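Predict the assembly for these two chains.
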Amino acid sequence: MEKVKFVFENNVLTVKILGDIDHHSAIHVREKIDSVIFDKKPVLILLDLSLVEFMDSSGLGLILGRFTLAKDLGCDFKLYKPCATVKKILSLAGIERLMKIEGDE
Amino acid sequence: MRRAKNFMKLYLPSISVNEGLARSAVASFVAQINPTIEEISDIKCAVSEAVTNSIVHGYKYKEGQIYIGVKYYEDKTVVIEVIDKGCGIEDIDVAMAPLFTTDTSGERSGMGFAVMQTFMDKLEVKSRLNQGVRVTMIKKLG
């Protein structure tokens, strides 16, 4: 099953992650995301978490790694629609102080 | 010591595909005492962290065995143990500090123990070098 989907429009790369993010899935997802980032060279990366129901600290590693890569490439990076469960772990790591979170109710 | 109302013992090989299995199995077991959605998410996350630590750090991706024991009591206290016989932790206080990681790739957040500590009521980590790690986590449900 596909774990990640990409939409590239007007220099914005939307990365939609489907399903749980843990150490097992993060390795595979990370490689895919990075290859698309290098290929498309977007101005903004929007990491869509709306379909992620579970995430552990490997997900934090995945997000922080992509955030750092985006910064190195001079590209903007935002998170989109994390659910309450995911938001809890994001705030534990202070992620909202590092990057914008959009689509928040 | 009081008698547990129910318990479960699980032995799994230390391969990453079992991270999801471990947390789902524990979640199904704990579902017997009607946890809230938040409680079940907290427990799943804590189990995922402990099992991932055993795979990545304890066994360093080599195959070993991970023991997961779960029990709950009449008062809805849940006790979870995750034990490996891997390389152990040299300095537990250092390992448990938020953001500390032995990983140099920049892909691991160093937040595993912080998650276990925050999402559970009590966390105890015991280790002997080259003998393994025992993580005990306790959470009393509402």
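The CA atoms of residues 49 and 112 of chain B lie 5 Å apart. Chain B has a mean pLDDT of 96.
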